[in-house]
Amino acid sequence: MRAVLRTVDRVLLGLVGLVLFALGGSVLVIGLGASAPSWWIHDGPHDVLLSAAERTRWRDFGWWWPAVIAVLAVLLLFALWWLVAVVRRRRLAEILVDTGDGDGAVLRGRALEAALAQEAERTDGVERAKVRLTGRRGAPAARVRLLLAPHVDPGTALDELTTHALAHARDSANLTALPAEVHLQGVQHGAERVS
Prior knowledge:
Elements: H1 2-31, H2 52-56, H3 64-87, E1 94-97, E2 105-108, H4 109-121, E3 126-135, E4 140-148, H5 154-172, E5 180-186
Parallel strand pairs: 4-5
Antiparallel strand pairs: 1-2, 3-4
Helix pairs in contact: 4-5
């Protein structure tokens, strides 16, 4: 289903880009002095997109401008939603596990995220761990956020994460690699009283 949505997204994006490129290019070429065919919406370099008659034709109808503004607002919201959906890193729903028999198995992404986070939290000095899997089903990547206690050395915590939790997750899912982006943050604590 996700592959179909990705294909539809790419086709729609390509069509919108092609239409905008064709319209913008034609306006530019005609504006530079090229002759336009008789059926085209622009006649020459001094033609306007909307004539005075076209702009004022619907002035007497009270519903016209609110309808135009509503349609443009809906188009803007749809475009913003589409942009956020394309840019946002999606959580990986499942991972393909090579079982060696040719069939393979499917591992839920949230199960591996939970297991990785639990093992990371068992590390000394890690107060809290959040894990999010991204990438493709056959080649996942991890985004890990660790909240560290004040006494913990960040290098040691990172080494423990990579040699234990990430290595165990990679081995248990039979992955050749599990790249990770790790964000370390220290727990904020109040000032200590010195006596």
